[in-house]
Fold these 3 entries.
Entry 1:
Amino acid sequence: MAGALIIGVGPGIGRAVARRFAREGLPVGLIARTEGTVRAAAEAVEGVPVVAGTADATDEVALRSALDEVTGKFGTPDVVVYNAALIRPDAPGELSVQGHMDAWAVNVVGAITAAAHVAPAMAERGRGTFLITGGMPEPKRRYVSLSLGKAGVRTLVELLDQEYGPSGVHVASVTVAGAVEPGTDFDPDDIAEHYWRLHTQERHEWEREAFHGP
């Protein structure tokens, strides 16, 4: 029994994506940094089996363990969504080296860890989808670490596509060009539709980036 696995199921996009895939009858695996966050996300999902685990995306051992917990119960996922990010304002020169390393670890390296852990099994099976939440279509000087991270996400998507795409794994990002807020042009439920659309695309239709703007 495969399903959808969402890493970073906060109250915005992650939770909305979980609900969107659940509406299609897919079992859902949820991973977040804190028990309270993942519990709230699990309570928001209805009608399908749910497995919830906690892990900091920057902790390789914990993240791999949480991924194993979900795949141990559901099998290799049909789709994995990496939605973890460290979003904070910082201008050039404001962050320490460690601050930049911390941001990069969440925004990019956690996605590499997750992909390396689940995508090979998808490739062996011959199908699967790996999606990363992107953003910052244009770099902003007041969001240096986030701008760098989202640029890294675009490059990572290209690299993962080169590695796993030929074996049937659709790798793509969803670029969100604004602050997520219910009832606005950036309503998380509207954004979640991009993830479902990318997952259901036929191979000849594959996109590597979906864009959500105002």
Note: Residues 97-125 form the longest helix (29 residues).
Entry 2:
Amino acid sequence: MQLDKVATASNVTDFLHKNLAEYLANAGMNKADLSSPQLNGTGVSHGFKNSAESNMLKIFDYENKCWAIGCAINNCSKVSRQILQSSILKELSDYDQIMRLNYSDRTFYRKKQEALCEFATRIQFWAYKYNTHIAELRIYQEKENKV
């Protein structure tokens, strides 16, 4: 099966705009925490039993999701990392990025799509490393059966 780049990029965009805000709020973090070059999340799982401790586990899980997202962004190739950090963490408009990077519109949107697809590929490793679950963001095209 081949990666559907358009659908995957759209899926990642939705995920980052919807889920990231929730994860950050529940972890008591902000986007600036994720742009740090050296993330220090531990990804440690705890064996707590009571409800207060269970609530702490939920907070730790949200933190781990945030660390996984930050690491996935920061682990991307240079151009992808630059685009993702500018789009997601710094909230720069596409127009501002096009001007800063001196790309044509077409080149920028192609590279942004590639960056979003690269993130979708990398996030699964970082979610595993930080012992958290993030749904699969990649969408694949089904091969057409030739008759």
Note: The helical segments are 5-27, 31-34, 51-74, 78-89, 94-101, 105-129.
Entry 3:
Amino acid sequence: MKYMCLIYTDPALTPPMGEKMNEAYFDLNRRLKAAGVMVTGDALQPATTATSVRSRGGKVETMDGPFAETREHLGGYYILDCPDLDQALHWAAQIPGATYGTVEVRPLVVFG
């Protein structure tokens, strides 16, 4: 089963990505790969770089920024291939962003 781990942090409370934080993520990536559960994962540019798109009645609207105003911003994600939710939660708890924010874990729907 594949799970998406969405990493949300409050930029006001999260230390900037520096050598220490990068090394924590690199270490986690090595452990996820060694365990055979990492499918992919990436960091995202800040929410200020986002563009939201809506289509209503055939008309397309674009807006600068994220759609929802929240304190925590989506900063990155992992897709993990784990046998069950318990193992996905085990790995999600080790994501460095969980120390400063929230990691939301959701199973993916696989079509076909």
Note: The chain has one domain: 2-107.
